[in-house]
Amino acid sequence: MIIIAGELHVAPERRGAYLDAVAEVNRLARAAPGCLDFVQAADPVDDGRINVYERWESDADLLAFRESGGPEPELPPILGADVRRYRVSSVEAP
Predict the structure, then answer these.
(1) What does the pLDDT read at residue 72?
(2) pLDDT score at 15
(3) Residues 73, 29: Cα–Cα separation, whole Å
(4) Comparing C-alpha atoms, which of 16, 40, 42 is closest to residue 30?
(5) Nearby residues of 55 by Cβ (< 8 Å), 6 or more positions away
(6) Under CATH, what is the fold of the domain 2-87?
(7) pTM recorded for the entire structure
């Protein structure tokens, strides 16, 4: 399993525009083969932060989605980012 997680930073007054622009990408990703979860969401504490969380069955599924040629929305500038890929070797109940 692959997890992509982290944060993006945009100007607080542009966060809504960013999230509106990626709404269709979120829908398409969730419908893609191998996508277990996909969300870009407003952080409840920091007005300029967007939380990123994706969960994929495999690298191949993630790559297939990224190369699928879906919509490329025009986005407000990203001022900073810290997003990482995690490889999960096992999964257990909490």
Answers:
(1) 75
(2) 97
(3) 14
(4) 40
(5) 1, 2, 3, 4, 35, 36, 37, 38
(6) Alpha-Beta Plaits (3.30.70)
(7) 0.90
Look-up: residue for tokens 């994706």?
54
* pLDDT in the model for residue 68: 87
Helix (H) or strand (E) holding 41: strand 35-42
| Nearest-angstrom CA–CA distance, 77 and 33 | 29
pLDDT at 83: 98
Say how many residues make up the chain. 94
Question: Pairing mode, if any, of strands 35-42 and 80-87?
Answer: unpaired
The residues near 2 (Cβ < 8 Å, ≥ 6 apart) are: 54, 55, 56, 57, 58, 59, 61, 62, 85, 86, 87, 88
Cα–Cα distance measured from residue 16 to residue 13, given in angstroms and rounded to the nearest whole number: 7
Residue identified by tokens 């890929």 is 85
pLDDT digits (tens, 9 = 90+) for 24-77: 999 999 999 999 999 999 999 999 999 999 999 999 999 999 998 766 778 999
